[in-house]
Amino acid sequence: MLAIKKFIILLFLLVPLSALGKGVYMTPNEFLVEVFPPSQALMTSLWLNNEIRASAKQILNHAYPGLRIRYWHSSVEGHQRTAWIMNEVGKTRPITIGISIVGGHIERVRILEFRESRGAEVRMAFFTRQFIGLTLHQNGRQLSDNIDGITGATLSVSAVKKAARFALYLHQLVATDKAQTDEQQLIQP
Amino acid sequence: MTFNLLKRWHGRVGVLAAFFVLLLAVTGLCLNHVSDWGFDRKALHSPALLSLYGMAEVNDVVSYPLADSYISEINDQMFYQLDEITACDGALMGALTVRFTNTSQIVVACERQLLLFSPAFQLIEKVGPGLGLPVAVKRVGLVDGELIIDTTSGLFFADLNALSWTAVAAGDVPSTVDWSEVGVAPEHIRLALAESVDREDITYERLLLDIHSGRILGGWGVYLVDAMAVLFMLLAISGVLMWMRGKKV
Question: Is B58 on the interface with A (CB under 8 A)?
Fold first, then answer.
C-alpha cells in the first residue's frame, strides 16, 4: 500500500513538469555582456525604409512591427560585430532571441525568453549551435546550411530561423552602410 | 487484508472520479459529433459563459484622451479610436504626445512596455525592460515637454530616442507634472469596442474542448484533469487486480 501511495505522490509531482520551458533564460544585458568586451558596444537605431520593410516581410512572412530597430555593434579585427535582440512569435507568444554576427557569419544564437508552453527545446545548445558560422545565400535570403528541426517544436524552430535570417540581412545592410542609422550611444554591458 | 484495503480505496477513488467520468464522457461524446450536431458553428451568447472567456462589457473599456481622440484598452486589445493597434505588455497606463522641434511622437504606456508611434500612428518601436525601461510603469506625464514616467522603482525622465532613463531624486520631484489621466471615451466608441470584442466567435465546440481539457478553469484546470486521468489509471489497475483476486477465490 505504501508503494501505491508513493507512486501516486510521484505522479502528482510529475504533472507540473509540462509547464517547464517558459521563462527568462538570459536578460538582454547578460546577452550583450557575453557578446561584447566591456565598454565596446555601441547602440544604434536602424530605420526601416520601404525596401527593408518589404524584405522583412519576405523573410519573416509578416510585416515587421515597427519603423526602427536597435542593434549593438563594435569592430573586431576589421570585421563588424553586431548583436540583435528580436521578438518573433512561435505559435502565439513571442520568443525573445539574441543573435550576434561577425563578418556576416552568425557567432551565437541565444533564447533569452520563451513564453509558450511547447517548443522550449529551441533554447538548448544542441539546437542553437547549428547556427554558428551560417551566413545568407545571396539569392533567396536563405540560411547557408540546413537547420535540423525538433519534433513538436516546428513553429519555434521556424521562428528562430526567421529571426536569424532577418538579423543576417540587417547585418549586411549596416555593415555595408546601406541603411540609415541614428545617433550612436556607448553602452557598457 | 490487502484485498480489503484495495477494495476500500477503489471504492473511495471511484466515487471521487465518478463525476469526472461522466463529465468527460458527455463532453467527449459531444466532441465526437461536433459537426453533426452543429456545435462548431453555434456561437456562445450567454453573458455568463462569455465572461468565462474574459469577454468584455462596455464598462471594461479603459481610455486615455490623446488630443481629440482616445487610446483605449479592452480585453487586452488596444485601440486608437476604433482601430486596433499593436498589443502592449501589461495594462494601459497612459498616452501622450511628446513634441520635438520638427516633429512629435505619441507614447502609449503600458505596465511593462512603452509603444512609440509616429504622428501618422505608425508604430516606431516597442520599448520594454530589454531596452532599459524601468518597470512597472504606473503613469506617464510631461514636465516642460519632457517625458517623465512614474514606476514602482521611482520617477524617471525618459528620452525614448536615446533610450536614457534618468532617475529623479526624492528632493528634485517636479512640482507640476502634466500626468496622462484616465478619461471616458464617448459612448459610441465604448459600445463599438465592446461589441467588436464580443464578435470574437466563441463556439460551443470551444467550450466543450475547454471543459474536456479542464482549461475552462485556467491553468490549474488542466492539472485537475491530469490528476483525474491518473485516478482513472489507478482505478483500471485496481479493478483488474480485484477481478483477478475474485476469480482465484
Answer: no
pTM equals 0.70
Q: Do B122 and A67 touch (CB under 8 A)?
A: yes
- Contact residues on chain B for A84, CB-CB shorter than 8 A: none
Q: Which residue of A has its CA nearest to B230?
A: A11
Contact B125 A96 (CB under 8 A): no
Order of all β-strands in the sheet with B77-80: B62-66, B69-74, B77-80, B83-85
In SS3 terms, chain A reads as CHHHHHHHHHHHHHHHHHHECEEECCCHHHHHHHHCCCCCEEEEEEECCHHHHHHHHHHHCCCCCCCEEEEEEEEECCEEEEEEEEEEECCCCEEEEEEEEECCEEEEEEEEEECCCCCHHHHCHHHHHHHCCCCECCCCCCECCCCCCCCCCHHHHHHHHHHHHHHHHHHHHHHCCCCCEEEEEEECC
Query: Pairing between strand B104-110 and B92-99?
Result: antiparallel
Complex ipTM = 0.75
Non-local CB neighbours of B199 within 8 Å, separated by 6+ positions: none
HEC string of B172-234?
HCCCCCEECCCECCCHHHHHHHHHHHHCCCCEHHHHHHHHHHCHHHCHHHHHHHHHHHHHHHH
User: Which cell is B121 given?
Assistant: 500612428
- CB–CB of B123 and A85 under 8 A? no
Bridge partners of A63, per DSSP, are none
pLDDT digits (tens, 9 = 90+) for B135-149: 899 999 999 989 999
Please tell me the distance in Å from A85's CA to the nearest CA on chain B: 9
Which tens digit of pLDDT belongs to each residue from B168-225?
988 888 888 999 999 999 988 888 887 776 555 678 888 899 999 998 888 888 899 9
Instruction: For residue B190, give the C-alpha cell.
Output: 465604448
List chain B domain ranges. 2-50+205-248, 56-198
Nearest CB among B5, B9, B124 relative to A66 is that of B124
Of B249, B245, B233, residue with least CA distance to B3:
B245
Q: Is B163 in a helix, a strand, or coil? A: coil
Distance from CA of A28 to the nearest CA of B (A): 5
Q: Which amino acid is located at A148 in the chain?
A: D
Say yes or no for a CB contact (<8 Å) between B161 and A112.
Answer: no
Q: Are B163 and B203 in contact (CB under 8 A)?
A: no
What is the per-residue DSSP string for B71-87? Answer: EEEETTEEEETTEEE--
